Write the structure tokens for this entry.
Amino acid sequence: MNDLSVPLNLPRTDASSDRTLHELQALLDNAGAGIVFIRAREVVRCNARFAQLFGYGDAADLIGQRSESFSLGRAAYRDLGRAAFPVIAAGRPYVTEREMRRRDGRPFWARLTGSLINPRFPDEGAVWVIDDLEAQKAAEKRLDAALWEKQTLFDHAMVGIVYLVDRRMTRCNSFFERMLGYEPGELANVSSRTWYSTDAEWHDIALRSGPVLMRGESFSGELALYRKDGSRLDCDVRSRALDPSAPTNGSLWIAMDVTERKRAQSELERLVDERTRQLRDTVATLHLEMEERRVDRDRIHWLAHYDPLTGLPNRTLLAERSREAIAAAQQDGSPLAVVFLDLDHFKHVNDSLGHRVGDALLVAISERLRDVVREKDTVCRLGGDEFILLLPGATAHGAERVACKLLDASRQPYQIDRHELTMAPSMGIAVFPQDGQDFDTLTQSADVAMYRAKQGGRNTYRFFTPEMQAQSARALLLENALRRALERDQFSLHYQPQVCIATGQLHGVEALLRWQHPELGAISPSEFIPLAEDSGQILTIGDWVLRTALAQVRAWQDAGHVVPSVAVNLSAVQFRRPGMPERIAELLAQCGLSADVLELELTEGVALDDPQLAGSTMAQLHALGVRIAIDDFGTGYSSLSVLKRFPISKLKIDQSFVRDLGDDPSDRALISAIVRMAQALGIATTAEGVETQQQLDYLREQGCTQAQGYHCGYPMPAEAFVAWLVARAQAPALPPH
């Protein structure tokens, strides 16, 4: 591509358009700053000033140059990328000062300003503007030299004086060193964290002072600093930016030891308290009964309207405020938003650390929620780890801004006792009036959106949409229908053949669950199985599948049909159910079948979620003689520990790898690797989704054991499968190898 010194290859419409393009080109070429367009980490075009800054004679020499070559090494380049990408991906410009590298290797200071061409499509590239700061840095060094000449004055001051840049000390006077008990020079270039007791205190002062200094204002306050020996020092501090117009250049801090003054003040307050306590006791006696009654009334009112643990408004107070907010919104047409917030995996805290730590964490989270919202907003704890935020006057954009602030706040860890905990929220947002005319409807809509946020990966937010409502309504409809599906005989099993690739003989069948609803029609297992697992109905349904599949194999054997085995998918809920191996032994005994007839298909995640339980359960099944297969191998954890630690007899290669065997060399390589690994471990392999002879031939060449798919046979009801068996006996579907 051309650089900025060459006109863009645009269609010429008229003389005016050409003149505009030339004027724009001249403006870029004569800009005082370097300008470069980066795409895929390479220079697409740049202006002459950019080439000059980095020591190149012509901008055209830089086309195709890797952007990493302008940084001081790979580590600096990666550090810049990690810092810049979250900012520019959010649609904001990223500004920083960094040392860059000229063509001859010499470093120089520059200010970088970058932004994406189109935040919605980051692959379109970014534009960076580079300003040379060498002259500015030289001036700063001269200023530093002048300041150091005044060090004698600082050293004789009766207060501590400290200069900080990026929260790291660049210099201080000797009084500050003596005040904290350090030797001369011992504090040089150390982090200001050194004189704080905890990280929390260190971060707290940054949060309090940072915004003030960034505004160019002075900060003052009382801080607890700590000497080298760990003893506490109470100080009055004053701070200001060295250059109010450029706060990042550093700040000046002056600290005065007020420890003795505070101690004297405390003693005086103690004496005053002691003298006045008698008077208070006398007055308190006179008003005790009246006060107790008032306190009781206030306490009853408080308990009725606030959450006892966090002190946040409860459902009752939220209902009152929501009615007022909706009435106001209806009257003056002002906006209103509701945010439903649920903490991700909060149960893990209670289960692993106990409810005391969990309660303390909820209190800390509640305080942080209150800090994010406005005075007129309401933060309510519904119970457990669920919260609702009522935001009067907030548009959809305003609610989104609050949600982003909550996500940012959640990234800061909570210090609960000795535990440092991080807790992320999932949030749903509903807006009045389009998402609900009353508060109950708004809350329900926000709740639906929150669950969509959890399905989308958690630690995020989603706006409510009518499509969500429709999906939730269908999910509710299916869940209710699912409860009666068994008793109404709506379930059936289809059986898909599994064929030995080497001999072409039937190796077994997989039992596949089907649901035919009289009004809703055929419902996909991918839709109703998750509902069955969430509602707990999978236990009853799964037991029916096992019982029906084994009974069918018994019936086939009694009729003289040879069906060596049946494979049944076992959900994680079923697998973890106490007594599951005993139940399978009972079903096998009822049907009079040997255990080697049954093959249970599990996903990798089932084994890895609780390895100890998985190992014990698999060992019991293996002892019975039941075979265990890992389904959809390669699409989940793909952990070799599953194959090494557990008694696995088969790997089922997912059909996504088989589908593109003819076109995708990566899939061929993966299948070859899986088969070789399984052969080395003595484990059989079944390829799913085999639909062509070409796929089958490749699988045979690689040594895959079995095949399953439309090329071998479709999923069929039991009666159709018998007809397939009879036809196959007359003409084998697969030629032997």
Remarks:
- The longest strand covers residues 506-517.
- The radius of gyration is 36 Å.
- Residues 259-305 form the longest helix (47 residues).
